[in-house]
Amino acid sequence: MTFIDTNVFVYFVDGRNREKQSIARAVLTDAIGSRQYVISAQVLNEFANVSLKKLGMTEDEVRQYIEAFQHIQVVFQQLGCTVRALELRKQYGLQFYDALLLAAAESAGCDKILTEDLNDGQVYCGITAENPFK
After folding, report:
1. For 15-129, where are the alpha helices, taking DSSP H only?
2. Do 125 and 109 contact (CB within 8 A), yes or no?
3. Sign of CA dihedral 100, 1, 8, 68
4. Residues 6+ apart with CB under 8 A from 94
5. pLDDT 10s digits, 103-124
6. What is the enclosing helix (H) or strand (E) of 38?
């Protein structure tokens, strides 16, 4: 299973970098309806926040994207994910929200996370970080 980080979703809608947008669109087109990819509710919430604040999208536009992304498997973070994120933060020296994504990916049984926020190629708790935009 592969976990997809928020930045992939943001590049999907942000046309300022066409190369990254093209890569993000390929990843998410493959992910929609596939049982090989997973996201967390945190990813959708971060996407909504960035889209509203930084990309100037309307609530209706964001909602349409969220509805399109609903076909990707979503893991919901429980209290255990927060506790695990604290452990991962301490172990790897990560920002808390990056550690929380890793905890969600771990709870979903993922072996890879697509992100540009972690060290490409590094393995965190059995999950390999891969930067699809490099």
Report:
1. 18-31, 41-53, 59-69, 79-92, 96-107
2. no
3. negative
4. 88, 102, 118, 124
5. 999 999 999 999 999 999 999 9
6. strand 37-40
Partners of 129 in beta bridges: 113
Two structure tokens written together for 24 = 């993000």
CATH classification at residue 20: 3.40.50.1010
Domain count, the chain: 1
Residue 1, helix vs strand vs coil: coil
Nearest to 99 by CA among 57, 40, 52: 40
Range of the domain at 26: 2-130
Cα distance between residue 71 and residue 87, in whole Å: 31
Up-side HSE of residue 78: CA atoms within 13 Å toward CB? 4
Longest dimension (CA), the chain: 40
Chain segment 78-93, per-residue pLDDT in tens = 899 999 999 999 999 9
Give the dihedral of Cα atoms 117, 120, 125, 126; nearest 10 deg: 140
Average pLDDT in the 19-27 region? Answer: 97
At which residue do the structure tokens 């964001």 appear? Answer: 62
Residue linked to tokens 């990843």: 27
Return the amino acid letter for 21. Q
